[in-house]
Amino acid sequence: MKKKVLLILSLVTLVFVSCDTSDDNGDYADYLVARPLVISKAEFASSVDIIPPRPINESGKVYTYEDYIFVNDKYEGVHVIDNSNPEQPKKISFIKIPGNVDISVKDNFLYADSLMDLIVLDISNINAIEQINRLENVLYNNIFWPFEADIIENVNFDYETEILIGWDTVTERRLIEEVEQNKGRDVLFNDIALAEAANDSRTGQGGSLARFKIVDDYLYAVDSHNINIFDISDLENPQDLEDVYAGFDIETIFNRGNHLFLGSMRGMYIYDISSPSKPTFVSEFEHGTACDPVVVDGDYAYVTLRGGNECGALESGLFIVDISDIENPKLAIDYPMDEPYGLGIKGEKLFVCDGKSGLKVYDKTDIEDLKSLNHFKDIVTFDVIPLETHLIMVGDGVLYQYEYLDDKIKLISQIGLN
User: Fold this and answer.
1) pLDDT grade, residue 291 (50/70/90)?
2) How wide is the angle at C-alpha 57 spanned by C-alphas 85 and 416, nearest 5°?
3) Which of 210, 222, 270, 351 could cross-link to 282 by cystine, CB 3.0-4.6 Å?
4) CB neighbours (10 Å) of residue 246?
5) Which of 308, 301, 297, 298 lies closest to 283, judged by CA?
6) Nearest CA among 259, 212, 229, 251 for reference residue 62
7) DSSP 3-state assignment of 407?
């Protein structure tokens, strides 16, 4: 099933972020500059490769499977780490997958997105990973316009022979006068067509930011508007089924029993998968406009909303939603946060990755009165996975692991991915 959407972007207004006048009389300012990462279509078609460990460029999502941890390097691929000894994790290799953001694993078969393609890898021998299948044009592109950037440069590539696989963003000092002169000029992709992107089996575990989720014999992959459904009963040969239109600005997926919980910029959508090939809408919880991962435990869904950025909202927070009546979810209570990303739950412990404000740990026994157990302040946090034995978290180029204690947690190891 070929899926394409025409993306024409124009009129990007350039606004500077900060200005340091101490050494340049206010003539210069720091700007976030984005440049497209482009490869040829021929290179993209044969681009998956297994190479020795390399430094991470931009930490993405984290995923665990058996004794291994997989850390996404945003739009570039996946770092493979041996975690058989959590106190001394070891880097094994890097799976080069241009345009990759998400993975999911079942019975030693790893499924990964590569822009609009779905890649299938055999990881039964972790030291000799093999690509065994590639389904072309079955996903929508996950490469989005870098709205957080102040300046976007060099977008006029040859779309007939080249493919956009991501964006390189760096902070650069620029002359304010020159930037102001360019403000309001159109930045246009001229006619660029981008393809948008509990049984005996062994599946891995992703964090709350995941867009991929395996439930029994089905892989669900959400894009901004749809649930893409794959029958993986034949693990080597996934079957692309009919998509289900699910809403707007969908960002994450979480599963509990026969329900999928989709986090979006507009709210949380709940879908019934009693008929797994045909998810059906159950209900929606609206919260305005904000970035939105979700996890579910018991009668409550825990949702982090991140504002003050491209997501549109002004304030950030943790929303706890009562889903005891699955067809009528209601806000129970909310708590302020700074810039939350992923979150996770283990027993009565709630873990929130609050961006530059660090990792926050709460006792959620009484949702009306969350009690702080730990706050690791001097780290940047992004995604977290609470395992049975310990906690895994990825931050700004660093993988952290924590041991559970009765009333708190403590660090047992960290490994730099740079």
Assistant:
1) low
2) 30
3) 270
4) 21
5) 301
6) 212
7) coil
Whole-angstrom distance, CA of residue 102 vs CA of residue 111:
8
Do the beta carbons of residue 112 and residue 215 sit within 8 Å?
Answer: no
Separation in Å, CA 209 to CA 1, 21, 224, 387, 394: 26, 38, 13, 16, 12
- Please check whether residue 62 is in contact with residue 399, taking contact to mean a CB–CB distance below 8 angstroms: yes
3-state secondary structure at position 11: coil
Chain segment 16-29, per-residue pLDDT in tens: 344 444 456 678 88
- Tokens 């207004």 belong to residue: 13
- Domain residue spans in the chain? 1-209
Paired residues of 255 in beta bridges: 260
pLDDT (tens digit, 9 = 90+) per residue, 136-162? 999 986 666 676 678 887 766 676 778
CA dist list (Å): 166 to 30, 114, 189, 245, 342: 22, 11, 14, 25, 22
Going across the sheet that includes 205-206, the strands are 49-51, 90-96, 77-82, 68-73, 59-65, 205-206
Identity of residue 246: A
The pTM score is 0.80
